[in-house]
Amino acid sequence: MQPGDKVKFLNENLEGIITRIIDDKTFGVEISDGFEIPVLKNEIVVTGQNKLVEDVQHKVEDKSNVKFQDPGLFVLLEQHVGTYYQIKILNHFEHEIIFAIYKEKDKVYKLLTKGQLLSGKALSLEQLDFTMPEKWATFHFYIIPLMGQSSLLPLVAQYKFSYRAKDLLHYTEENGRRRYSIKLLQKQVEPDLDITDLVKDFDAGLKQKEATIALERPQVEVDLHLHKIVENTNDISPESAIDIQFREFENNFDKAISLGYDKITFIHGVGNGTLKYMIRKHLSQNKSIKSFRDAQKEKFGYGATEVFLK
């Protein structure tokens, strides 16, 4: 049994898809209503092959229906099974491109794939588990545009994608599945560039990244009440409010993990319990935490969750 396998429950009239391995005896299974529940291994039987291997081959598909204001190279993260997302590269230029894609992991670079991609087409790369962003690789894209006749030879453009929590604040939804769209920034690869210039650029970029991270450190106590997140709460429906609050939780939670926090507290209030349920469901699926519990009642009442990180 592995994530993506279709399963049937032995003691109940239910079917689902394995979304993750919780431990040696327990799996997370997504049932028909979209919820994931923990199930013992001996309570289910496999009825279908692993869906996660469907996109192992780098499949090209038409994405001309996905529209953005600006042309460019986009990364799409599309929900596939449970917490697993398919990463795709979308050619949103008006012209065809030649590409080479390298995967960087632990400072080792591997050529993932190469070829040509027509305008409006997307190329599947691999699966990513949203519960373990710390294990995501960095992808480097080298692109040459094929623009037909021109007075200048086209230069190779370089793009990079790696996990950043702020890139995943907004998403669209189609058929109950999420899609994140991230436009990649271009760095032109100049011919005959001196290596000292590359080192200077790298050092400057590293310092800028460290400064950015320092500015983005979340508070150890994050208040998720709507009026603390947005200035004007008028005309925000209850459904939209929950979505805004949960995205704020996800953003601060991911930052806390990335920055090595030991503990962070989320003040979600009591309300009807929906936000608390969504937060605790997310926490129960994440392997980067030790535990979570009700925060100090004398200080927060019953409306806060204290999270201990590994």
Structure write-up:
The chain has 310 residues and is of the alpha+beta class. It has three domains: 47 residues, SH3 type barrels; 132 residues, Immunoglobulin-like, CATH 2.60.40; 89 residues, 2-Layer Sandwich (Ribosomal Protein S8, Chain: A, domain 1). It is built from five helices and 20 strands. The strands form four sheets. Strands 6-11-8-7-15-14 form a six-stranded antiparallel sheet, with no helix packed on it. It has a five-stranded antiparallel sheet with strand order 4-3-2-1-5, with no helix packed on it. A hairpin with a 2-residue loop joins strand 14 and strand 15. About 5% of the residues have low confidence.
Q: Tell me about the biggest sheet?
A: 6 strands, antiparallel
Classification by helices and strands? alpha+beta
Q: Helicity range of the residues?
A: 10-25%
Number of H- or I-type helical stretches: 5
Q: What would you call the shape?
A: globular
List the helices and strands in order. Answer: EEEEEEEEEEEEEEEEHEHHEHEHE
**Backbone CA Rg:** 22 Å
Short précis:
The protein has 310 residues and is α+β, with helices and mostly antiparallel strands.
Topology:
Elements: E1 6-9, E2 15-21, E3 26-31, E4 36-40, E5 44-48, E6 60-62, E7 73-81, E8 84-91, E9 96-105, E10 108-117, E11 121-129, E12 138-146, E13 157-161, E14 172-174, E15 177-183, E16 187-188, H1 195-215, E17 221-223, H2 226-229, H3 238-258, E18 263-267, H4 274-284, E19 289-294, H5 297-300, E20 304-309
Parallel strand pairs: 17-18
Antiparallel strand pairs: 1-2, 1-5, 2-3, 3-4, 6-11, 7-8, 7-15, 8-11, 9-10, 9-12, 12-13, 13-16, 14-15, 18-20, 19-20
Helix pairs in contact: 3-4
